Amino acid sequence: MAMTDDAVLDRATQALRRHTDQGWTLVRENALLRALSAFRPSAPVRGRTEAPSGTVDYLVAADVVTAALRDAVAAVPGASPLTITCSTDDQDRLVIVTIEILAAFDEPLLPLASTVRLAAGTSLRSVLGELAPAAHVVAVDIAITDVSNVTDDLS
Prior knowledge:
Layout: H1 5-18, H2 24-37, E1 44-51, E2 54-61, H3 62-74, E3 79-88, E4 94-104, H4 109-128, E5 139-148
Parallel strand pairs: 4-5
Antiparallel strand pairs: 1-2, 3-4
C-alpha cells in the first residue's frame, strides 16, 4: 500500500515529536538566551567627545557600534565580516570587541588581521568619540574563521 505525501509527513512529524536529542540538553540554554536576546533592546556603549562646552558623555546602542564595525571591516580588501560582538563593563564602557572574518584565499593573514584591527579602531573612534577608550584599553580580537577563493563571498 503506497503512502500519500501527507501520510508520510504526518508519520515523520510524529516521529520527530517523540525524539529527544541528547545534544539538546547541552545547547538549549545558549539557544534560549540567544532567542530571548533577539527581542531585547541593544546594550548601551559609552562614548565621549570634546565639544566647545566641554567634555560630553553619551550612549550609543551596541547595534550601532556593531554596524559601524561591520562597514569598516567590509571595506578592508580581502576580508568580510562574519560575526562581531561588543562587550562592556558595568559602567557601559567598551572593553572587548571580537571580530570573526572570512579571509580571501592566499591573503597573508597576519597583515590582514592588523589591517582589520586598525580599521576597527578608526571606526570605534568615529562612533564613540576621540575621548572614548583608547585603543590599548579596548581589546580588539580578530578571529579568521574561514577562507574563500570566491570574490562574491568577500563583498
